[in-house]
Write a structure and sequence with these properties.
The chain has 317 residues and is an alpha+beta fold. The protein has helices spanning 24-45, 53-60, 70-85, 95-100, 113-120, 149-166, 264-276, 279-288; strands spanning 2-10, 13-21, 66-67, 128-131, 136-139, 171-176, 180-184, 192-196, 213-217, 221-226, 231-234, 237-240, 254-261, 293-300, 303-309. The protein has an eight-stranded antiparallel beta sheet with strand order 1-2-6-7-10-13-14-15. Strands 3-5-4 form a three-stranded antiparallel beta sheet. Strands 8-9 form a two-stranded antiparallel ribbon.
Length: 317
C-alpha cells in the first residue's frame, strides 16, 4: 500500500492531501487533478480577484441583479440556509464588519461605535435577494459585501474529494490550513486521527503540548474555528478577529468551536455556530444534527470552560 502527499497554496492558505492506494503514480495524478479543482473554485469565489463571481456581486449587486453560475448560486443559497439555522451566527455578509474592524487585510483596529453601527446595518443574509429562476443575486441594501471564506474552504475540499472518488481513490485525508479537514475512508492502520490543540486565550504565545482532543475520522469532516491568530490590543483590551454578525463586535468569551459532520462545507459553517453559540443554541444544534460531534471552549474569567457533545476529550496517560 502506497501513501503520498500533494499540496498547493490556494484561498490564502495551504492545502495538503494525503492519499493512500496501490499505485503512487495514480494517486499523484488524481491528487493533482483534485488540487486543480481548488484553483477553479477559488477563481469563482475569491473576493480579491476582479473576475470572480463573488467580486462581481460585490461590485454591482447593490444596483442590479447579478446572474451567477448555478454552482455559485446554490452555494449562496446553502449559506443563507445556514444563517437561518444558526440564528445569524454564521453569515457570509459579515464582510463589512470584518473590514470595519480592520481584519480584512490587516491585524485589526478599533473603529468608532458609529462606524460599527453603520457596518452592522449592511450585515444580514435576509438582505440578500435570490432569484432561483434566473440564478441572480441582488443586495437589498447598498454597500453590502459577501465573503464566502467561512464556507469556501470546506466547499472546495468536498469538491476535491469528489474528484478523488471519481478517480478511484477511496482513502485520503484532505485539509485546508489544518482548520478544515475532509476524510475519505481510512489511513493504512485504521481511521484517520486528527489532534485539536487546547484552546488558549487571545495573545497567548504558546500552545499546550498536550492536545485537547484526538478526533477519529472516516468518511466525514472536521472544522475548527478559533479566535487566536489575528488580534490587537486597544486601551488594555484585546480584540480578536472573530466577529459576531449579530452584535457587530469581536466575540469576548468564545475561544474555540469544533464540529464533525458529513460534509466539509457544512462543518465550516457549523463550526462558527459552535464557536459563537449559547447553551440554548448548542442544544438546538444538537437536536438538528444528532449524528454530529462538537466541542466548544469559552473563557470563564481567566479559566477555560468546555462543552462537548459526542466528543472524546484527550486523557493523558
Amino acid at each position: 500500500m502506497e501513501k503520498i502527499t500533494v499540496a498547493r497554496n490556494a484561498m490564502a492558505t495551504r492545502f495538503e492531501f494525503v492519499l493512500v492506494g496501490e499505485s503512487a503514480v495514480r494517486l499523484r495524478a488524481a491528487g493533482e487533478e483534485a488540487l486543480d479543482e481548488l484553483d477553479r473554485i477559488e477563481a469563482q469565489l475569491s473576493i480579491y480577484r476582479a473576475g470572480s463571481e463573488i467580486a462581481l456581486i460585490n461590485a454591482r449587486a447593490s444596483y442590479e441583479p447579478i446572474r451567477v453560475s448555478p454552482e455559485v448560486f446554490a452555494l449562496i443559497q446553502r449559506a443563507q440556509t445556514f444563517s437561518e439555522i444558526t440564528g445569524g451566527a454564521f453569515d457570509i455578509s459579515v464582510a463589512p464588519l470584518v473590514r470595519c474592524w480592520g481584519f480584512m487585510k490587516g491585524n485589526g483596529n478599533r473603529p468608532t461605535d458609529g462606524q460599527i453601527a453603520e457596518a452592522r446595518e449592511l450585515v444580514g443574509s435576509q438582505y440578500l435577494e435570490l432569484d432561483e429562476s434566473r440564478s441572480t443575486v441582488r443586495f437589498k441594501r447598498a454597500g453590502m459585501m459577501l465573503d464566502l471564506g467561512s464556507i469556501g474552504k470546506g466547499y472546495a475540499l468536498d469538491a476535491a474529494a469528489e474528484v478523488l472518488r471519481d478517480a478511484g481513490v477511496e482513502n485520503a485525508l484532505l485539509h485546508g490550513g489544518t482548520s478544515t479537514i475532509c476524510a475519505l475512508g481510512q489511513d493504512i492502520d485504521g481511521k484517520w486521527k486528527v489532534a485539536i490543540d487546547q484552546p488558549r486565550l487571545p495573545g497567548a504565545s504558546n500552545s499546550p503540548s498536550t492536545p485537547q482532543a484526538v478526533v477519529e475520522l472516516e468518511n466525514d469532516a472536521l472544522s475548527v474555528s478559533a479566535v487566536w491568530g489575528k488580534f490587537f490590543t486597544f486601551e488594555g483590551k484585546t480584540y480578536g478577529h472573530v466577529i459576531d454578525p449579530r452584535t457587530g463586535w469581536p466575540t469576548e468569551s468564545s475561544l474555540l468551536g469544533a464540529i464533525v459532520v458529513d460534509s466539509a462545507a457544512d462543518s465550516d459553517a457549523l463550526s462558527t455556530a459552535v464557536l459563537l453559540g449559547s447553551e440554548t443554541e448548542l442544544a438546538r444544534l444538537e437536536s438538528s444534527y444528532p449524528e454530529s460531534r462538537f466541542l466548544q471552549a469559552t473563557r470563564d474569567q481567566e479559566k477555560i470552560a468546555l462543552r462537548s457533545y459526542n466528543f472524546n476529550l484527550f486523557k493523558p496517560g
